[in-house]
Amino acid sequence: MQNLTExxxxxxxxxxxxxxxxxxxxxxPLMILISHKIGAVDKPNARRINAKPMPSxxxxxxxxxxxxxxxxxLPRIVGLANHHLVEATYFRYILPFVLGGGIVALTGxxxxxVELGAKTKLLGQVAGACVIWFxxxxxxxxxxxxxxxxxxIFPEWLSFFATIFWILAITNAVNLIDGLDGLAxxxxxxxxxxxxxxxxxxxxxxxVYLPITIxxxxxxxxxxxxxxxxxxxxxxxxxxxxxxxxxxxxxxxQGLKNATAVAVLTPMLILGVPITDTLVAVVRxxxxxxxxxxxxxxxxxHRLLSLGLTQHAAVLVIYGIAxxxxxxxxxxxxxxxxGGIFLLVFSLIGLDILIEMVGVWGENRTPLLNLIxxxxxxxxxxxxxxxxxxxxxxxxxxxxxx
Length: 402
Known about the structure:
- The chain has two domains: about 5-295, no CATH class; about 370-400, no CATH class.
- Helices cover about 70% and strands about 0% of the residues.
- It contains 15 helices and four strands.
- It has helices spanning about 10-40, 60-80, 90-115, 120-135, 155-175, 185-200, 210-230, 235-255, 260-270, 270-285, 300-305, 310-330, 335-360, 365-375, 380-400; strands at about 40, 55, 140-145, 150-155.
- Strands 1-2 form a two-stranded antiparallel ribbon.
- A hairpin with a 6-residue loop joins strand 3 (about 140-145) and strand 4.
- The chain is globular.
- Keywords: Cell membrane, Magnesium, Membrane, Metal-binding, Transferase, Transmembrane, Transmembrane helix.
């Protein structure tokens, strides 16, 4: 029989992915019992989808599976410290990511039990982001203006704020979409898988550690996923959602080291669903005169449910949208400049049509659909013109009265 140490790296890595998945698969049922004992239970309310109390610390299984494998197993087999593309051992590379992610996961875990305030949760996220800034080189340091523009080098203070902002934005974007069974987990698997492919095939500065780490995280989520897919028996909670958002943010940062337009757009496209849902929520809440932190039931998954879709169907629809975003991100990396521009423009148009059709902007906010109807429907065009005439006449009468 062949000695385990003599096996190829590829074979050993596949074994590691399987073991990672099994660890999460075994730990998740234990977290169902532990969640009930420690009070990490998601109780039904006006904003929740669940009709009964649900254990909500399932993300611990993902965190433990990923952290244990990357800290104690992978460093023993990677052995690339002297490789010309690697600056440090894998352990030194991954330790800050696990420490920063651990701080964020701990913040989420406490929130799952006692429900922390927004500022306290944000403080935990900032602490984790600062670990990444001070102990890794995953920074946003520059940006190349497209179409032959200059390369803008950020001063250190701006690089710091840009990096921290990116981490916080993506972390909370992923957390916000965790509103249906299996939604955050499935979207994260799709996004991370695409990110791993981009990291392996398309990064200008190759990083052999990055895809290795990404697919271990995918395996950890996959082990938890069967318990969370509709109908779920446990939620990942803020423990898992914040950890996944944080890890996706910091891993994507390594692709932004040389921030060309494609390098910036690729992770934004890969994370299209959570980013779009968050940006639309901010704009919608400002248009409604409320606080951007004010919760509502107008997110994409809420709107799909209001259209009559089941949880299962709504989740599959969003998986489909996330897959389209990911496919566009892959195509963008091999397309010409003008091909990429047309791809992005038509993608944005299609995205806005979808958002308006399901009513995510809010009631009666459908400018693009109105424009399409104005161009293609003569009766509607006449009605709009007539209404404009009436409004102009009314304005003239109002002026005369003054």
